[in-house]
Amino acid sequence: KAILNVGAKLNGVQKSMGAFEFRIKRVPDPVAYVGSIKGDGQMTKGELNAISGVFARMENFDFDLSFKVISFVLSMNVNGVFVEKKGNGPAITPEMKSLLTGAKPGNKVFFEQVTVQGPDGTMRKIPGVNIKVK
């Protein structure tokens, strides 16, 4: 809850006009996207190689707010070995790009541990994106 105190200056004298109580609610978490995919989805190898990063978007929210991606982890199975690469910021790193180039149909690519920063400076972890290469 927040209390808003309203005052006015009348004839040079400051006077309280009342206090009003408002209920406030935290802004909901944004949703992580890779390309046009959120949650679980499929991409061709060409689409996967064209992605530039992980982005956070507000859905069904009335105000224009943006969250920026601070970090994420890309992980996938490469020849039987599970490989993880951490990215700082939203962009795909050259190491990640190399992994994605080697992806084959049927491989799953996970964009996990997505950390975003809101306009108020707070950090939040949001669910990632899982992509199956078709």
Protein described:
It is built from two helices and ten strands; from the N terminus they run E-E-E-E-H-E-E-E-H-E-E-E. The protein has helices at 45-50, 94-101; strands at residues 2-10, 13-22, 31-34, 40-43, 54-57, 68-78, 81-88, 108-117, 123-126, 129-133. Strands 4, 6, 7, 8, 9 and 10 form a six-stranded mixed sheet that branches.
Map the helices and strands.
Blueprint: E1 2-10, E2 13-22, E3 31-34, E4 40-43, H1 45-50, E5 54-57, E6 68-78, E7 81-88, H2 94-101, E8 108-117, E9 123-126, E10 129-133
Parallel strand pairs: 4-10
Antiparallel strand pairs: 1-2, 3-5, 6-7, 6-8, 8-9, 8-10
In round numbers, the mean pLDDT is 95
Derived from helix and strand composition plus strand pairing, the structural class reads mainly beta
Name the beta content range: over 45%
Count the E strands. 10
Residues in helices, as a percent range: 10-25%
Q: Output the helix-strand order.
A: EEEEHEEEHEEE
How would you summarize this macromolecular structure in one to three sentences?
The protein is mainly beta. Helices cover about 10% and strands about 50% of the residues.
